[in-house]
Design goal:
- The complex is a heterodimer of chains A (390) and B (261).
- Helices cover 28% and strands 35% of the residues of chain A.
- Chain A has 390 residues and is an alpha+beta fold.
- Chain A has a six-stranded antiparallel sheet with strand order 4-3-6-7-8-9. In chain A, strands 10-14-15-5-16-17 form a six-stranded mixed sheet, sandwiched between helices.
- In chain A, helix 5 crosses helix 7 and helix 8 crosses helix 9.
- Chain B has two domains: 178 residues, Rossmann fold; 71 residues, no CATH class.
- Chain B is 41% helix and 14% strand.
- Chain B contains ten helices and seven strands.
- Chain B has a seven-stranded mixed sheet with strand order 2-3-4-1-5-7-6, with helices on both faces.
- In chain B, strand 3 and strand 4 form a beta hairpin.
- Chain B is globular.
- Classes of the chains: A alpha+beta (390), B alpha/beta (261).
Chain lengths: 390, 261
């Protein structure tokens, strides 16, 4: 389906139908009653530090697959990458609004609630949690008379149950209100394996979330490259990598007996070298390239899109990113603090008549408020007025 | 009590220069340009340069001038001619807090192609969303009650809120009082030129040419804008003798609630 929209020049432009047309964060982390209206295919989130831009990406990610414990666990852990100072329980609870008695949030309900319109299946999700403790029997080894004996002891373990309800859009006349609601209880408990994902859960909106440290995590590159190869997007991805290092000739996954699969780059000068020895910029675009296939017909969420990419490489990288999103029917949401990144995305979207919207976040009276800038206003603000839109 | 922050918006550099001169006459001091010392209230409307493909493209950078006193902080903003209403609308959309937090907004524009009331209506149509109550009668100041928490607003259409004209029409009248010899000479020179040299002139270009001729005698090589900001076009004498300038002076004084010097 194609929607015709009026461009800034007055010309009609074609825009793909949105997976998310409007997204409301009723309650999530520190955000309350925040609405992204009339989203574009390319969406820029800009504004103050700590105003909630990353939380919006997290909320979108959660909304896309709300009954998946992996999603909850990954989101809760994402901000703690490399420094797990909080327990799993604590991380999960911080996804919920926190009650502060003496602030504007004094009426806050400790419940997550998100809703959206668009072609996505889910209309609304609500989640609440309860903490509990359980006595587990732990067997620990103990040295006896020359042999190891195991001693059982009881240990109290804290856990958290998240009760999630997803309400589907009423697209089928035969769907009753009860049919529209899908419920799941997700139990998280330190030391206990996480449960299997139920197979009868609702269809999800394909979503990939690239955070500022994604490109440094050693586990993901080989998975990402497999996705690229499966999507037959290898040549385009290699071409992008060659912009960062023209000596790159090919990319393969190497699996040795003892090691985890690693990405091996065939290089004119280095012969073969693991991806991890290359610079951050190259690894960052590798992560972006790898995320596209997994976000096909869904959402790509990129926190700090300019991260590690030199300003001279922004145009090439963003041109590629935006075109791939359009080609793969991906709705892109990116945060940035970089004016160069904003200007480059405006340029890319202007030249190709792509549908662009920006949302500017600002703290006002302890609450994040958002202003929507359509493509015309955004372009005029930068190109005619030179205004600070971040 | 905090400063009263106000915006005076104009269409072009000449109008901006004249307003700057007027504000100095009210005892306000011009901000010298060190970004680090600029009142943070104004940071959002200071342009941030955009990397441009054309090395010589500076056409979008129109910097506001800022003036301060113990009680007031005023931004003199220059839009780009007919884009001014759109530019103000864009700024208020982008930074809604300005429309809520400024003390006053004044629009000072020319009536070069339309009658003053038509010009004022064009601006109120565009800006009443942000400034409800802004009057479409030129020269009228709207002063909402304190409980309404809205800025004072007004539109002044040059030269005098009644007839067609521009700032230059007013300045030529000023020249009659402060530069009478220069003005007489400029008029003789311009009228002596063959019509073929003036065939491309638009309405009110004659007045601009008079000012340019006078300015180039006072300070050879100087631009009109600099001369308007520096010389005696707007001064104590012309404020008392040129009625349209006196009206503008009173309008600024009433709108911003500035005590006359």
């Amino acid at each position: 389906m194609v929607v015709i929209v009026q461009g800034p020049s007055g010309k009609e432009e074609k825009a793909a139908v949105r997976h998310i047309d409007e997204f409301t964060i009723h309650r999530f982390r520190g955000l309350q009653d925040l609405k992204l209206e009339n989203t574009g295919q390319i969406n820029l989130l800009v504004g103050d530090n700590n105003a909630g831009k990353t939380s919006v990406l997290e909320a979108l990610s959660l909304f896309s697959d709300p009954l998946n414990w992996r999603k909850w666990s990954a989101l809760a852990a994402a901000r703690e990458a490399g420094s797990a100072s909080l327990s799993l329980n604590e991380r999960i609870t911080w996804l919920f609004p926190q009650i502060k008695g003496d602030s504007a949030f004094s009426e806050t309900i400790p419940e997550i609630m998100l809703s959206a319109s668009g072609s996505c299946l889910v209309e609304k999700i609500a989640a609440r949690y309860e903490q509990f403790s359980e006595i587990l029997q732990i067997s620990s080894p103990k040295l006896g008379d020359g042999e190891t004996v195991y001693e059982d002891r009881d240990k109290e373990v804290q856990g958290i149950r998240v009760h999630v309800s997803a309400f589907l859009h009423n697209t089928l006349p035969t769907l009753s209100d009860a049919d529209r609601q899908v419920q799941e209880t997700l139990t998280f408990m330190s030391g206990r394996p996480l449960p299997a994902i139920r197979k009868d859960r609702i269809a999800t909106l394909p979503t990939q979330f690239i955070n500022p440290s994604s490109h440094r995590l050693s586990i993901t590159p080989s998975l990402l490259w497999s996705d690229i190869v499966n999507a037959e997007a290898k040549s385009g991805a290699i071409e992008l990598l060659q912009f960062f290092d023209h000596n790159i000739q090919d990319v393969d996954i190497i699996i040795s007996a003892a090691e985890r699969p690693t990405i091996s780059i065939k290089h004119a000068r280095l012969k073969r070298a693991p991806l991890s020895v290359f610079g951050d910029g190259l690894r960052r675009v590798f992560a972006l390239a790898g995320a596209i296939p997994g976000a096909k017909d869904g959402l790509l969420l990129v926190d700090e899109v300019e991260m590690s990419i030199h300003t001279r490489a922004l145009e090439k990288s963003f041109t590629w990113l935006v075109k791939e999103c359009v080609k793969n029917n991906v709705q892109l949401f990116v945060t940035t603090h970089s004016l160069e990144a904003v200007d480059t995305i405006i340029d890319v979207c202007s030249e190709e008549a792509f549908d662009l919207v920006a949302y500017r976040f600002k703290h006002e009276k302890e609450r994040a408020v958002v202003t929507r800038l359509d493509k015309g206003l955004l372009t005029r603000s930068r190109e005619d007025l030179g205004l600070e839109v971040r | 009590m905090g400063l009263k922050y106000s915006i005076l918006a104009t269409e072009g550099a000449h109008d901006q220069a004249a307003l700057c001169k007027l504000l100095r006459m009210f005892g306000l001091e011009i901000f010298k340009g060190n970004r680090k010392t600029l009142d943070t209230f104004w940071l959002d409307i200071v342009p941030q340069r955009k990397e441009d493909d054309s090395l010589y493209s500076h056409n979008y950078v129109h910097l506001p001038y800022f003036f301060t006193s113990q009680t007031h902080s005023v931004a003199v903003y220059q839009g780009r001619g007919s884009s001014l209403s759109q530019n103000i609308s864009d700024i208020m959309t982008l930074y809604p807090s300005y429309a809520r937090n400024i003390h006053a907004l004044g629009i000072i524009v020319d009536a070069d192609t339309k009658l003053p009331h038509e010009v004022a209506k064009m601006y109120t149509d565009k800006l009443s969303t942000f400034f409800p109550g802004i009057s479409n009668i030129p020269g009228i100041i709207t002063a909402p009650s304190i409980s309404e928490k809205l800025p004072r607003t007004g539109i002044y259409v040059l030269p005098d809120n009644n007839k067609k004209g521009t700032l230059d029409s007013m300045l030529v009248e000023c020249a009659s009082h402060v530069y009478p010899d220069h003005k007489a000479g400029a008029e003789v020179f311009l009228s002596s030129l063959d019509l073929m040299h003036k065939s491309h002139w638009k309405p009110f270009d004659y007045e601009k040419a008079v000012i340019a001729t006078i300015a180039s005698v006072i300070h050879p090589g100087i631009a009109n804008t600099l001369s308007i900001a520096r010389d005696n076009w707007v001064c104590d004498q012309t404020i008392t003798t040129v009625s349209s300038l006196a009206n503008l002076y009173k309008f600024i004084s009433d709108l911003l609630e500035l005590p006359s010097q």
